[in-house]
């Protein structure tokens, strides 16, 4: 990232316009931006063996020296953000981040479908399919408008609730290929996911067969009846001939559609747009036709004999006889009911007793026919379709109607059967989610597109039910195949301007829906196969080089062919309904409702209320009951199952071991630590509260019991749900180690340790001294447990406090598995922190593109569904300040003194105070730069003009801040300001190397003892001072600051310095939570 630098010459030296920043001496210390760094702290100090050192790496990597020892396991966030934000939307296995699996798969094209093309249109096309055009009028006529409305509303409500549940899972993270199966299996486990996913796959495949059969029915019934290969010799053979035609044509269409899908999904999408445009045009034609019937209903006559509907396939004139040349002549209808054409012929009794009448099949929306169609008209198979309320005279003898030209029902009808036939039409809601692998942003597109499609189609279906019932005669509605109207499509006759709009639209609709099913089902099977949960299906996980599921498509076509061979649309639809319905009702539960449903509900309500009352308020009784034994057995079984392996990233939650300190009365020193635990856990998961008593158990068991009672009492007050564990150990250190190693049982063990910062760590006789603290940090790291250290814990809020505003600031310096992302999210679920805003800061150095880092971090948070403000703070390399050197000198002097002198507590404190006072009085420097001037262009004063006073008061809250006075005098010579790019900056660094070394040596003229400091400590102190300045500048008034906790040094000789670094890093902050990850990922972007 090109960065500009402004360089100001210093008096006493020749002006050097091209002089790089680090070539100036200590006078430009922290007022300048640093040199380019590679982000890896690999600095070699110029003060150690300076004559022989290669000066090429001078001061590279000083900013992050505090974290350098763990960079291999905890990399800088800047180096990791791009990988975290940009994921590959491929099918994921049981473990999402398996690099070896990804390497085996060939790279496929980047998903690019949006919400409209990828989800909304496929769902719309699948839902507005065969049922709307071929069966909805029949369902309305059979069950009536009211019950039809209930059927459709019930099914649409079911799918809407399903879509909302699916949206909750989809918006929880990234949804790779696999769609609904992926979401179910990752939410309920591989057993449920595999079972439901495979059933859903079979249902989607049979849905394709259903749509293909609907396509053939429209083709052979309404478009081109002459195209039938098998012809029926009589009326009884028509059904069998139609089924054979469906089998032949269906096989051909399945093969054709499979070829289209095999060629590529992009061609399916192109065809889908054409098909869907026809469907939408057809629906508009229906609404236009309904409006037209209000003032100009179409001529659509129906012939009735009495109240019985007649099929017009074998006659054209609706009359028994007509007048021709003043002579009465019988019609063709007469010959169908009589034995000859003469007026004296013997005819059917019902034909003789009743008149032939003709009525309008579509009387219009203003005719009032809606009243007649409100109620159901369920019939048995083979019943004659009759018009309610029409005059009819039945004969005395049983009438044989076989062979007569009546319109008969082909199946027995009842409410639940109609639900089974209609329900497959709404199952098209999964068409979009099945394509999740092809979507650009699946977690956004799936909920939005699916819910919009359900809302649109629900309105269309519900409105069509009312409009059909208000415009069309009931006998026409119940005529499934349009036999009373010369096999015309009823909706087509209703539509305007032409019936062919509906016929063509319904044909393409069923074609498109079948194509969508054959596109989605193989991808679903491929996702199941790639997960490996059903071994014999693994072969279907392979496909073409571009990811198309070839083998899964072949199996899908074969299964679809089975549905084609069944050949009956009304037989395939219930199979689909059963495959997509989850039947979990037990026999006893069903029997209870069959006997008396209202008594069953009352009994369940009473029993439930009594059970909950006894559970909540009843006395605790130990009767050795079976429920208690069952609970123990279930707990044992669950513990054994949990112990099988480490939890998945999505199941990881902080199971906390809280380490408490007790006073001499066995009371808790920091009760707020339990308050914070309660706010973090909210009563969920595992919480173990532990403490250590120093001594022998035989001597201390009474104190241990008292301490346990006190802790449990405090846990009740603070509403901390968990277990208490007191350990008595001869050594406080050993007791802590025992708790960290052995607390918990089986798989229910802690993975996080929460403790308070030892405020009095400088006192060696403190039972929780700095040595114990650092050893605890090391042990949690060795045990791969996360560590949370709350500093200033007594300032943390109680459970009764409420923050009405403020920020929870996260300073994400190094990637530790995501603990820093997870903790504020969990805290903000509690009412104490709920109104606080979450802000995330990360640090960019010279080589980092801060703009891109911010975009990547925002994308990463979007995938995690975290609502937070993002800010990238630029912290460039610069020289180490005099303040840092003095701070390090004081730290090393105190450390050396504590090691060599055996002093009493009071003497040691007086000695430390005298050293501090002496240093404070001696530190006056000619130039001192502020930490808050990082990355800014600074003008340095002349050394002879004005001195900079270092203010270092350890007894004030702002003792880590420094004051810089940079006012130039009137006699200041003209300043030369130059703008530098990164390339010029590096080139000039080598050009002036010798001058640079001389300039660095000048710093020791101020205080010679600085040259003897441990340069590793100097660099770490430099990191602590700079980070503290940046954090104070941004987060001084935050309600809580979460910060990466640097690890202790590998060399244990520097443990006391480690504590000082942490003190400097967090100075001036009210509430700080230092966080160390446990060495594993705890968050994932996957749903």
Automatic annotation (TrEMBL):
<dbReference type="GO" id="GO:0005886">
    <property type="term" value="C:plasma membrane"/>
</dbReference>
<keyword id="KW-0769">Symport</keyword>
<feature type="transmembrane region" description="Helical">
    <location>
        <begin position="551"/>
        <end position="576"/>
    </location>
</feature>
<keyword id="KW-0633">Potassium transport</keyword>
<dbReference type="GO" id="GO:0055075">
    <property type="term" value="P:potassium ion homeostasis"/>
</dbReference>
<feature type="transmembrane region" description="Helical">
    <location>
        <begin position="148"/>
        <end position="171"/>
    </location>
</feature>
<keyword id="KW-1003">Cell membrane</keyword>
<dbReference type="GO" id="GO:0006884">
    <property type="term" value="P:cell volume homeostasis"/>
</dbReference>
<feature type="domain" description="Amino acid permease/ SLC12A">
    <location>
        <begin position="413"/>
        <end position="584"/>
    </location>
</feature>
<dbReference type="GO" id="GO:0055064">
    <property type="term" value="P:chloride ion homeostasis"/>
</dbReference>
<feature type="transmembrane region" description="Helical">
    <location>
        <begin position="246"/>
        <end position="265"/>
    </location>
</feature>
<dbReference type="GO" id="GO:0045202">
    <property type="term" value="C:synapse"/>
</dbReference>
<feature type="transmembrane region" description="Helical">
    <location>
        <begin position="192"/>
        <end position="213"/>
    </location>
</feature>
<keyword id="KW-0472">Membrane</keyword>
<keyword id="KW-0325">Glycoprotein</keyword>
<keyword id="KW-0630">Potassium</keyword>
<feature type="transmembrane region" description="Helical">
    <location>
        <begin position="113"/>
        <end position="136"/>
    </location>
</feature>
<keyword id="KW-0868">Chloride</keyword>
<dbReference type="Pfam" id="PF03522">
    <property type="entry name" value="SLC12"/>
</dbReference>
<feature type="transmembrane region" description="Helical">
    <location>
        <begin position="411"/>
        <end position="431"/>
    </location>
</feature>
<feature type="domain" description="SLC12A transporter C-terminal">
    <location>
        <begin position="1018"/>
        <end position="1087"/>
    </location>
</feature>
<dbReference type="GO" id="GO:0007268">
    <property type="term" value="P:chemical synaptic transmission"/>
</dbReference>
<dbReference type="InterPro" id="IPR018491">
    <property type="entry name" value="SLC12_C"/>
</dbReference>
<protein>
    <recommendedName>
        <fullName>Solute carrier family 12 member 7</fullName>
    </recommendedName>
</protein>
<keyword id="KW-0812">Transmembrane</keyword>
<dbReference type="InterPro" id="IPR004841">
    <property type="entry name" value="AA-permease/SLC12A_dom"/>
</dbReference>
<dbReference type="Pfam" id="PF00324">
    <property type="entry name" value="AA_permease"/>
</dbReference>
<feature type="region of interest" description="Disordered">
    <location>
        <begin position="1"/>
        <end position="47"/>
    </location>
</feature>
<feature type="domain" description="Amino acid permease/ SLC12A">
    <location>
        <begin position="119"/>
        <end position="291"/>
    </location>
</feature>
<feature type="domain" description="SLC12A transporter C-terminal">
    <location>
        <begin position="787"/>
        <end position="928"/>
    </location>
</feature>
<dbReference type="GO" id="GO:0015379">
    <property type="term" value="F:potassium:chloride symporter activity"/>
</dbReference>
<feature type="transmembrane region" description="Helical">
    <location>
        <begin position="272"/>
        <end position="291"/>
    </location>
</feature>
<feature type="transmembrane region" description="Helical">
    <location>
        <begin position="451"/>
        <end position="477"/>
    </location>
</feature>
<comment type="similarity">
    <text>Belongs to the SLC12A transporter family. K/Cl co-transporter subfamily.</text>
</comment>
<dbReference type="InterPro" id="IPR004842">
    <property type="entry name" value="SLC12A_fam"/>
</dbReference>
<dbReference type="GO" id="GO:1990573">
    <property type="term" value="P:potassium ion import across plasma membrane"/>
</dbReference>
<keyword id="KW-1133">Transmembrane helix</keyword>
<feature type="transmembrane region" description="Helical">
    <location>
        <begin position="582"/>
        <end position="611"/>
    </location>
</feature>
<keyword id="KW-0597">Phosphoprotein</keyword>
<keyword id="KW-0813">Transport</keyword>
<keyword id="KW-0406">Ion transport</keyword>
<dbReference type="InterPro" id="IPR000076">
    <property type="entry name" value="KCL_cotranspt"/>
</dbReference>
């Amino acid at each position: 990232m090109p960065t500009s630098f402004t360089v100001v010459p210093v008096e006493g030296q020749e002006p050097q316009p091209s002089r790089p920043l680090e070539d100036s001496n200590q006078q430009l210390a922290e007022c300048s931006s640093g040199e380019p760094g590679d982000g890896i702290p690999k600095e070699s100090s110029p003060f150690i063996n300076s004559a022989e050192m290669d000066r090429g790496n001078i001061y590279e990597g000083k900013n992050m020296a505090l974290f350098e020892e763990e960079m291999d396991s905890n990399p800088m966030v800047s180096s990791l953000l791009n990988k975290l934000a940009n994921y590959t939307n491929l099918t994921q296995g049981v473990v999402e981040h398996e690099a070896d699996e990804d390497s085996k798969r060939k790279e496929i094209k980047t998903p690019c479908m949006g919400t409209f093309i990828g989800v909304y249109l496929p769902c719309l096309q699948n839902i507005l399919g065969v049922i709307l055009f071929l069966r909805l009028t029949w369902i309305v006529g059979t069950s009536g408008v009211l019950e039809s409305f209930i059927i459709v509303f019930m099914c649409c409500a079911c799918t809407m609730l399903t879509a909302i549940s699916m949206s909750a899972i989809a918006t929880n993270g990234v949804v790779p290929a696999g769609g609904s199966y992926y979401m179910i299996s990752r939410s309920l486990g591989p057993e449920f996911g595999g079972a439901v996913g495979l059933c859903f796959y079979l249902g989607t495949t049979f849905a394709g067969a259903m749509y293909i059969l609907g396509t053939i029915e429209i083709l052979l019934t309404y478009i081109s009846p002459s195209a039938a290969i098998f012809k029926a010799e009589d009326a009884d053979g028509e059904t069998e001939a139609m089924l054979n035609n469906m089998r032949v044509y269906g096989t051909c269409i399945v093969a054709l559609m499979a070829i289209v899908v095999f060629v590529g999904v992009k061609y399916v999408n192109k065809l889908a747009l054409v098909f869907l445009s026809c469907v939408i045009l057809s629906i508009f034609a229906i609404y236009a036709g309904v409006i037209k019937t209000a003032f100009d209903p179409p001529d659509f006559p129906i012939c009735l004999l009495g109240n019985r509907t007649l099929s017009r396939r074998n006659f054209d004139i609706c009359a028994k006889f007509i007048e021709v040349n003043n002579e009465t002549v019988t019609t063709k209808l007469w010959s169908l009911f009589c034995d000859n054409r003469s007026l004296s012929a013997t005819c059917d009794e019902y034909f003789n007793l009743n008149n032939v009448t003709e009525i309008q099949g579509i009387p219009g929306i203003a005719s009032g026919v809606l009243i007649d169609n409100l109620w159901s008209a369920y019939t048995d198979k083979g019943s004659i379709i009759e018009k309610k309320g029409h005059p009819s005279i039945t004969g005395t003898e049983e009438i044989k109607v076989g062979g007569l030209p009546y319109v008969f029902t082909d199946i027995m009808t009842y409410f639940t059967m109609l639900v089974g036939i209609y329900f497959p039409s709404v199952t098209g809601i999964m068409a979009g989610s099945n394509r999740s692998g092809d979507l650009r942003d699946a977690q956004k597109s799936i909920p939005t597109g699916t819910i919009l499609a359900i809302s649109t189609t629900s309105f269309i279906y519900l409105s069509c039910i009312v409009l059909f019932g208000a415009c069309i005669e009931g006998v026409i509605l119940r005529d499934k195949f349009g036999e009373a109207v010369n096999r015309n499509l009823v909706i087509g006759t209703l539509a305007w301007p032409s019936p062919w709009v509906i016929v063509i639209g319904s044909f393409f609709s069923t074609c498109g829906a079948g194509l969508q099913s054959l596109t989605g089902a193989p991808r679903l099977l491929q996702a199941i196969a790639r997960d490996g949960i059903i071994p014999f299906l693994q072969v279907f996980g392979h496909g073409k080089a571009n990811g198309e599921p070839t083998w899964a498509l072949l199996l899908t076509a074969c299964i679809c062919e089975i549905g084609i061979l069944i050949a009956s649309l009304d037989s395939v639809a219930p199979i689909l309904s059963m495959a997509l319905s989850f039947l979990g009702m037990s026999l006893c539960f069903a029997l209870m409702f069959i006997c008396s449903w209202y008594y069953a509900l009352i009994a369940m309500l009473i029993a439930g209320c009594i059970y909950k009352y006894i559970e909540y308020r009843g006395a605790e009784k130990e009767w050795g009951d079976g429920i208690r034994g069952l609970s123990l057995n279930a707990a044992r079984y669950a513990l054994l199952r949990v112990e099988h392996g480490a939890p998945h990233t999505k199941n990881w939650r902080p199971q906390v071991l809280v380490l408490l300190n007790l006073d001499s009365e066995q009371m808790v020193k920091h009760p707020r630590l339990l308050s914070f635990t309660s706010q973090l856990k909210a009563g969920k998961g595992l919480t173990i509260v532990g403490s250590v008593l120093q001594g022998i158990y035989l001597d201390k068991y009474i104190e241990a019991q008292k301490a346990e009672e006190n802790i449990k009492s405090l846990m009740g007050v603070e509403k901390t749900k968990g277990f208490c564990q007191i350990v008595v150990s001869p050594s406080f250190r050993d007791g802590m180690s025992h708790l960290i190693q052995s607390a918990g049982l089986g798989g229910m063990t802690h993975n996080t340790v929460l403790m308070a910062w030892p405020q009095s760590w400088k006192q060696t006789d403190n039972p929780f001294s700095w040595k114990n603290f650092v050893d605890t940090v090391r042990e949690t790291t060795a045990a791969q447990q996360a560590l949370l250290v709350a500093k200033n814990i007594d300032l943390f809020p109680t459970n009764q406090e409420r923050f009405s505003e403020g920020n929870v600031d996260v300073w994400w310096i190094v990637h530790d598995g995501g603990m820093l992302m997870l903790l504020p999210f969990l805290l903000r679920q509690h009412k104490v922190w709920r109104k606080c805003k979450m802000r995330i800061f990360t640090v960019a150095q010279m080589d980092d593109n801060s703009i891109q880092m911010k975009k990547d971090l925002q994308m990463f948070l979007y995938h995690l569904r975290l609502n937070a403000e993002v800010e990238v703070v630029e912290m460039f390399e610069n020289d180490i300040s005099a303040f840092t050197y003095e701070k390090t000198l004081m730290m090393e002097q105190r450390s050396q003194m504590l090691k060599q002198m055996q002093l009493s507590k009071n003497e040691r404190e007086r000695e430390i105070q005298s050293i501090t006072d002496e240093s404070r009085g001696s530190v006056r420097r000619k130039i001192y730069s502020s930490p808050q001037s990082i990355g800014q262009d600074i003008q340095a004063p002349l050394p002879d003009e004005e001195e900079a006073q270092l203010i270092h008061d350890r007894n004030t809250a702002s003792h880590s801040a420094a004051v810089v006075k940079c006012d130039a005098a009137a006699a200041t010579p003209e300043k030369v300001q130059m703008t530098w790019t990164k390339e010029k900056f590096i080139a000039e660094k080598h050009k002036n190397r010798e001058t640079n070394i001389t300039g660095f040596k000048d710093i020791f003229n101020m205080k010679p003892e600085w040259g003897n400091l441990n340069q590793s400590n100097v660099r770490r102190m430099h990191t602590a001072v700079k980070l503290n300045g940046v954090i104070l500048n941004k987060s001084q008034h935050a309600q809580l600051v979460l910060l990466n906790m640097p690890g202790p040094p590998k060399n244990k000789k520097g443990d006391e310095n480690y504590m000082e670094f942490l003190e400097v890093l967090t100075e001036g902050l009210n509430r700080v939570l230092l966080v160390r990850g446990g060495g594993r990922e705890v968050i994932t972007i996957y749903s």
